[in-house]
Design brief:
With 373 residues, this protein is an all-alpha fold. The chain is built from 19 helices and no strands. Helix 5 packs antiparallel against helix 6, helix 10 packs parallel to helix 12 and helix 11 packs antiparallel against helix 12. The longest helix is centred in the first third of the chain and has 49 residues. The N and C termini lie far apart (75 Å).
C-alpha cells in the first residue's frame, strides 16, 4: 500500500475513534441529567396517583432538583460537557420537535396588531432597561447586555450581542449568571399572575411568551397551565426571539459610538484600552442571527401546516419533545448556583429586577390594550 493510501486508511479509522471519544465524554453529564429527569417523572407520577393531577409538573421538578443538587454538589470536569450538551443541544432539539404540533395558521390568525405589539414591547423593554441600568451606574455595554437579555431571550441574547458591542468578559459572566437564576424564578413565579390578575389561558400564554427568557422555559411555565397557553406562549416567544436578528444588526452599527467601558463607574468596568478595539462590530453569520432550532421549528411547523406531517405522528413527537425538555430543564437547574446572587452585586440585581418589572408591566398593558381574551 502506498504512503498516501496508508494515511487515508489511518484517517478513516481515526474518525470513529474521535466520535466515540466525544460520546464518551458526554455520557457522565447526560446520565446525571437523566437521573434527575427520572426522579422528576417519579415525583410527578406519585403526585398523580395521590391527587389525580400533577400540581407541580416534572419540568418544574427537574429544575428544582437540579438546583438543589447543584447547591450541595459542584459537577466535576467529567460531568460538565454532558450537562452543557443537555442544556443546549438537547434543549434546542426539543424546541425543534415542538414545531410538529404547531400550525403556522395560528400566527396569521393572531393578527398584525399582536405582531406589532410584540415588536413594540421588545423595543420599549430595551430602551427602559438600558435607562434603568445607566441610572444605577452600570457601564453602557453592561446595560445593553442586561437590556437585551431581559427584552429578548436571556443568555442567548447576551451571548449574541456581547461580541458585537465588545463587552468585557466579566460583564458577560455577571449578566448571564443572574439571568440564569432569574429565568428559573420567572418559570416558578409567573403562574401566580393567573389568580392575581385574573388571566385566561390565552392571556397567560401571551404573557409568558412576552416575558420568559428562553423558549424551553416558556414550555416549563405554560405546560402545567394547558395546551392553549403552551401554543400561544411558544408562538409569541418565537416572534420575540426573531427580534434578536434586527437588534444584533442595529447594535453592530451603534457599537463604535458607545462610550469606553472606563467612562462609567460600575461593576465589570474595564480599561479604555480593552474597550476600544472590541467595540468594532464583527462579521455576522446567518446562524448567529437566526438560531438553527428556530429554523427547524418553523420548518416542522410548515410541514405540519401543509399536512406533510400526519396527525398520527404529532402525539409521539410531542411526547418526545416533552421528555427532552425535562432533560434540558434538569441540566439548566444543574447549571444554576444560587450563591451567584451574592457575587453579581447589588446594582446588577436591581437593574435586572427593575428591567423585568418594566417588561411585565409593558406586557400586561399590551394584553389589555389588544383586548386579548
Amino acid at each position: 500500500m502506498s504512503a498516501k493510501g496508508l494515511a487515508t486508511a489511518r484517517a478513516g479509522t481515526a474518525q470513529p475513534r474521535i466520535a466515540s471519544g466525544k460520546i464518551a465524554s458526554l455520557l457522565p453529564g447526560i446520565l446525571v441529567c437523566l437521573a434527575v429527569t427520572l426522579a422528576s417523572l417519579a415525583v410527578q407520577a406519585i403526585e398523580e396517583r395521590a391527587t389525580g393531577h400533577p400540581y407541580i409538573e416534572a419540568l418544574v421538578i427537574a429544575i428544582l432538583l437540579g438546583i438543589a443538587l447543584r447547591t450541595v454538589w459542584s459537577p466535576g470536569e467529567r460531568f460538565r460537557a454532558g450537562i452543557a450538551f443537555s442544556a443546549k443541544q438537547v434543549l434546542e432539539l426539543a424546541v425543534t420537535l415542538l414545531g410538529a404540533s404547531v400550525s403556522l395558521g395560528a400566527i396569521v390568525a393572531s393578527g398584525t396588531s399582536l405582531l406589532v405589539g410584540i415588536v413594540a414591547t421588545v423595543v420599549l423593554a430595551i430602551v427602559a432597561s438600558y435607562a434603568i441600568c445607566r441610572v444605577l451606574g452600570l457601564p453602557a455595554r453592561m446595560a445593553i447586555l442586561v437590556a437585551c437579555g431581559n427584552a429578548i431571550c436571556g443568555n442567548s441574547a447576551i451571548a449574541a450581542v456581547a461580541p458585537v458591542i465588545g463587552a468585557d468578559s466579566k460583564d458577560v459572566v455577571a449578566a448571564i449568571a443572574f439571568t440564569a437564576v432569574l429565568g428559573v424564578l420567572m418559570v416558578l413565579g409567573l403562574p401566580l399572575f393567573i389568580p392575581l390578575v385574573g388571566l385566561s389561558e390565552h392571556q397567560y400564554g401571551t404573557l409568558a411568551g412576552l416575558t420568559v427568557y428562553a423558549v424551553p422555559q416558556v414550555l416549563a411555565a405554560t405546560v402545567p397551565v394547558g395546551i392553549l397557553a403552551t401554543q400561544v406562549g411558544t408562538l409569541v416567544k418565537l416572534v420575540r426571539v426573531l427580534m434578536l436578528g434586527p437588534v444584533v444588526v442595529a447594535f453592530s452599527f451603534i457599537a463604535p459610538y458607545l462610550p469606553p467601558e472606563g467612562a462609567s463607574s460600575g461593576q465589570g468596568a474595564s480599561s479604555k484600552k480593552d474597550a476600544s478595539p472590541k467595540g468594532r462590530p464583527g462579521r455576522l453569520g446567518f446562524f448567529k442571527i437566526v438560531p438553527w432550532f428556530i429554523l427547524g421549528f418553523l420548518a416542522l411547523a410548515t410541514l405540519r401546516s401543509l399536512g406533510i406531517v400526519p396527525d398520527a405522528a404529532t402525539p409521539p413527537i410531542t411526547r418526545l419533545a416533552g421528555l427532552l425538555t425535562v432533560v434540558s430543564m434538569a441540566a439548566l437547574g444543574l447549571g444554576v448556583d444560587v450563591r451567584v446572587l451574592a457575587r453579581v452585586g447589588g446594582r446588577v440585581t436591581l437593574a435586572v429586577t427593575g428591567s423585568l418589572i418594566v417588561l411585565l408591566a409593558v406586557s400586561l398593558s399590551l394584553i389589555w390594550a389588544l383586548r386579548i381574551s
